[in-house]
Amino acid sequence: MAGALHSQIPHRTFLMRLFCFVLVLLAVAGAQDRFVAPVERSGYTRVTSYDTLQTFLKDVGSTAFVLVEPLTKSRKGRTLSVAKVSLSKTFGQDPGKLRILLFAQQHGDEHTGKEALSMLLAKFASGDFKDVLQNLEVLIVPQMNPDGGELYQRRTSDSIDLNRNHLLLTSPETRALHDLFYQWMPQVTLDLHEYGTLSRSWSDSGFIRIADAQLGMLTNVNTSPEIRDLQHNKMFPYIAGYMQGQGYFYNEYIVGSPGDRVRHSTTEINDGRQSFGVLGTVSFIQEGIKWRTREDRLQRRVESHLTAIQALLEYCSRRAREIVQTVQKERARLVALAGQPVALRMDHAQGKGELRIPVRMLKTERDTTWLVKPYFGEVKLQKSTLLPEKYFVERKDSAIVELLRRHHINVEEVSRETEMTVSAFFTDSITRANIEEETQPLVSVSCRQIKKTFKPGDFMISTRQPQSLLTAIILEPESMWGLTKYEQFAYLLKRGQYPVFRLP
Fold this sequence. Notes:
The protein is an alpha+beta fold. It has 13 helices and 22 strands. It folds into 2 domains: 342 residues, Zn peptidases (Aminopeptidase); 117 residues, no CATH class. A hairpin with a 5-residue loop joins strand 13 and strand 14. Helix 3 packs parallel to helix 4, helix 4 crosses helix 10 and helix 8 packs across helix 10.
């Protein structure tokens, strides 16, 4: 009996050792499944280079929840990638899920959005946030401007400001982003940037802004009032409360200075927020804080960006059905707007609302809040027109049509010679006006009905499509954000008769 017991002891010891060995293997395997973003791996001592980002994307793109694909190439041949995040094996197979598009570093010298999205991808690839992915699918473009990022400059290598290229879409980077949007039609978009806090225009007033991040919502009055209400009264308060709970300063995005006028950011349709917002999208811009150098206070800057993104994802997951229904309603409305007003001009005005923002007093280095004065917190309509049933463009002006098609706007060719009564524009004057603190052309036209014969090869654009408002903003000669703003289309105003016709 004793001999039998003695013979079992080594066997049990072997099993115990084997069990411990298996536990160690599982722990190592688990550790290997944890992904760490490059900026975190560096201890937040440096921003991530293009090559390092590509290696990281290749690693996370091989996981169960993240698929990384090439989106396009920059002028210098660098790859822009998109990461598709989903619990499903095939992205987009569940039409009931809310889709969100996140993109960063349109401006090459603004790195923290890229770093925050890299950290978010590391978490997704590690299996985190499965709860929010029950109701969401996420598209992530972490670096829109790799050429500018490597040069540490705002613009691309060919001097294009990507965040002012969303109407012309002449850059491969912005064109690819819009192609991605139209492929998946996300209901929510977020464009990540940085704002400078040490400008003389603020420090001369005795204080500087210290918000870790600012959230910009839709301001163009053509965008949906219901979506703007959702942003202001539900989504922003939730994210701001979440940020406050994590110890961060957060406020609504403002531009300007105390010595001039303080307003919310541009109503331009050619940036990464309004261009998607006018298509019935819950579209945001988020501006993280920028200090003296790229790496100055880098950890807090990146983590505050990431915390706000996580708050947005959490809110969207909890209220996914409500958001989807709101967007569906707006996009259905957009195809039936013929005869309804479309805004051509607007401006920021002082309203009754108040805004307090976190600031630091320079003399005392004390943090406090400042009641923004003067606060141009409202955008008011200045000029509008009624959306026609159709627009017509002659064949000789095919450059206009090429632009429309870059926006996936359906353009038909006239099949047979047809005479009809249309409204034609005639240029009365072109003056220069101060629009959002920049001098820009302001066009005045008269309109009268004429009989016009359209021939095969001319073009017809129906407004019964989701881009109805966008089409009018582009084509109308008195639109402050339309074609007439751009030098390459200045010739359109030199003929006397503007070469775009309306079918009332």
